[in-house]
Automatic annotation (TrEMBL):
Family assignment from sequence similarity: Belongs to the Dps family.
PANTHER family in the cross-refs: DNA PROTECTION DURING STARVATION PROTEIN, GENERAL STRESS PROTEIN 20U
Protein name: Ferritin Dps family protein
Parts of the chain that traverse the membrane: none
One Pfam family this sequence matches: Ferritin
CDD domains the UniProt entry points to: DPS
Domain Ferritin/DPS: from-to ranges: 21-157
Entries under InterPro entries matching the protein: DPS_DNA-bd, Ferritin-like, Ferritin-like_SF, Ferritin_DPS_dom
A GO term, aspect molecular function: ferric iron binding
């Protein structure tokens, strides 16, 4: 990886580790964002309006997280993000099962996808802190707290 020079006093080896982690999460967050938009567009059933609106709020928060993660990678001198096809390969989580539209099934899938990324990012907080990058750990903490909050909303709507 070729890192840009910066006045940030952090070893290049640490910056490389962090940039790699951040870009991996950018790919995963983008994948989950797309899956939640699929839920937003395709959900059907008695809870349509509540779920349709909720899913858009979640998707907006994931895009904010994507932007913050990518910009932290750029801040540390890395190349931020990657083309969409490469993100899809890197994300390697479960894909969205097209054809599932019933609101009660959709909200359980959304809870699963959101909790998967939320729990990954929670682990990253300790990992980046141990590497000596408190700034990234703090950013991940903020994202983690937002995702936990959003998961509460999903679980409360769906009793999932
Ligand atoms: Fe929409």
């Amino acid at each position: 990886m070729s890192l840009r020079a910066t006045r940030i006093e952090m070893p290049a080896s640490t910056r490389e580790q962090v940039v790699t982690l951040l870009n991996q999460r950018v790919a995963e967050v983008t994948d989950v964002w797309m899956q939640i938009k699929l839920a937003h567009w395709n959900v059907r059933g008695p809870h349509f309006q509540a779920y349709h609106t909720l899913f858009d709020t979640l998707a907006d928060h994931l895009l904010e997280a994507q932007d913050a993660l990518a910009e932290r990678a750029a801040t540390l001198g890395g190349e931020a993000g990657m083309p969409l096809g490469q993100m899809a390969q890197m994300a390697n989580g479960p894909t969205w099962p097209m054809g599932v539209r019933q609101d009660r099934q959709v909200i359980i899938l959304v809870a699963d996808r959101l909790s998967h990324i939320a729990n990954r990012i929670r682990q990253d907080i300790d990992e980046t802190a141990a590497w000596g990058d408190a700034g990234t750990a703090d950013l991940l903490t903020e994202i983690s707290r937002q995702l936990d909050h959003d998961l509460w909303l999903v679980e409360a709507h769906g009793e999932a």
